[in-house]
Amino acid sequence: MRQSNAYVIGFAAILTVVLGGLLALAATGLRDKQAAAERLDTRTKILSAVMEIEEGAPIDAIWEERIRSLVVDFEGNVVTALENGEQLVAEKLDIGKEFDKAPEDRLFPVYKFMNEENPEKVDAYIIPMYGNGLWDNIWAFVALEPDLVTVRGVRFDHQAETPGLGARITDAEVQARFEGKKIYNDLGELVSIEMVKGETGDPSIYDDYHVDGLSGATLTAKGVNAMLEKYFAYYEPYFKTIKTADDSEVEEAAESI
Q: Residue 157's beta-bridge partner residues?
């Protein structure tokens, strides 16, 4: 029996509404799981800059025990809330969206990795970074030792760098090149760390401020260099507040002797 056009149109409209409703319910139901998965992935990457992460490790438990976070502004001041009164949470701050702002208007998360036995002692400072690679954005989590000079570890990631070339910034071997390098020279000047042009495969020929480059991926390496240089400078005002506080504690301790 042939159906009228009105029947066909009505049936299609009802089917569209029903399917749309089911998709909306599915999206709503999965939203919390997706958010939890993204949070776990971010926490894993941040922690992997300072420790080996074994498969099945209780990431959330380690995070709650070892990480203390805060947010600072361009001048190094700790910021706890936005102008509208909304409380700031470092984990929820989108470093990519902040990257679209002028540097002086950005907010910068800081993650302090606390000592397992002494929760008041900082074992490392982890700072997120964001920049431009060859094809799209790149980003990193860089961990500094308590001296705020020596790199403890880095974790790079990217949006669309070339497989086998620029995408190698995610390789453990490439990231390990930065371990132990220094961002300040002996005069106390911020010099950052530079990936050189070309790749020798011999890390022994480089000083404390240079690492092997990426063969065939010079532009990605330049993007990494620019990102490191800019963000170390952005975080330097905060570094100075820590060093000033540490110097004051040393002076107070000396006076009490």
A: 139
* Structural domain range at position 39: 1-47
pTM across the whole model: 0.83
- Higher pLDDT among residues 235 and 39, named by residue: 235
Half-sphere exposure of 194 (CA within 13 A, CB side): 9
pLDDT computed for residue 250 by the predictor: 40
| Predicted local distance difference test score (pLDDT) of residue 249 | 53
Q: What phi and psi, each to the nearest 5 degrees, are found at residue 214?
A: -120, 115
Note whether 109 and 179 are same-domain residues.
yes
Q: Is residue 245 part of a domain?
A: yes
Q: Is 78 a domain residue? A: yes
